[in-house]
Amino acid sequence: MKKVLMILAPVDFRDEECMEPKKVFEEKGFQVTIASDLNPGDEAKGMLGGRIIADINIKDIKTDQYDAIVFVGGSGSAVYFSNKVALKIAKDAYEKGMIIGAICIAPSILANAGVLKGKRATSYPSERQNLAKKGAIYIEEPVVVDGNVVTANGPKSATSFGKEIAKLIEKKQE
User: Fold this and answer.
1) Four-point Cα dihedral 122, 124, 129, 134, nearest 10
2) Positive or negative, the Cα torsion across 135, 137, 142, 148?
3) Is 152 within 8 Å of 132 (Cβ atoms)?
4) How many angstroms separate the Cα of 89 from the Cα of each of 5, 19, 42, 49, 171?
5) Would you call 128 helix, strand, or coil by DSSP?
6) What are the residues facing 13 on neighbouring strands?
7) What is the SS3 assignment for 35?
8) Tens of pLDDT along the chain (174 residues)?
9) What is the CATH superfamily name and number for domain 3-173?
10) Beta strands of the chain (E only): which ranges?
11) pTM for the whole structure
12) Distance from CA of residue 71 to its chain's centroid?
């Protein structure tokens, strides 16, 4: 069974950027694990009032147990911009050739981890300069796929973001 790890902020993740891709993954039969900087069983709170239970704390993540790692956006995800654990997860996953995704402001996590250097990527407009400064080739599109890296610009792109990641996971199966 294919496994997707979704990493979200304990507070103020963007509801649709978590729920819509999660729905896409589950409809494909993928197992979804929710990670946050919370204890397993604790509840993360979305910007729009959504709530989701964390399955694992980010410090306990072993990247090789998953087929894809997805960073959920929302204003709260800024807590991971300089979080050593989150940056290491992004870097490890990328170096292992895993599928890695980030939406909204979360692509800055990938940029800060050095993952977007020389890669085409998009994000919420507020992060454009950081991505460019860290070597990304900024593309003004809803969803951008470059190799195993998928980035998206915000809530309106959440479903297509999920579908692009799912496509890459299925392609790897072949």
Assistant:
1) -50
2) negative
3) no
4) 11, 22, 21, 27, 23
5) helix
6) 46
7) strand
8) 999 999 999 999 999 999 999 999 999 999 999 999 999 999 999 999 999 999 999 999 999 999 999 999 999 999 999 999 999 999 999 999 999 999 999 999 999 999 999 999 999 999 999 999 999 999 999 999 999 999 999 999 999 999 999 999 999 866
9) Class I glutamine amidotransferase (GATase) domain (3.40.50.880)
10) 3-7, 11-13, 31-36, 43-46, 51-53, 56-57, 68-71, 99-103, 120-121, 137-138, 143-146, 149-152
11) 0.97
12) 2
| Strand arrangement of the beta sheet that strand 43-46 belongs to | 11-13, 43-46, 51-53
Q: CA 6, 83, 87 angle in degrees (round to 5)?
A: 60
Q: How far is C-alpha 169 from the chain's CA centre? A: 14
Q: Report which residue type is found at 174.
A: E
CB atoms within 10 A of CB 125: 12
Q: Give the C-alpha separation, 44 to 127, whole Å.
A: 23
Provide the residue type at 67 as one letter: D
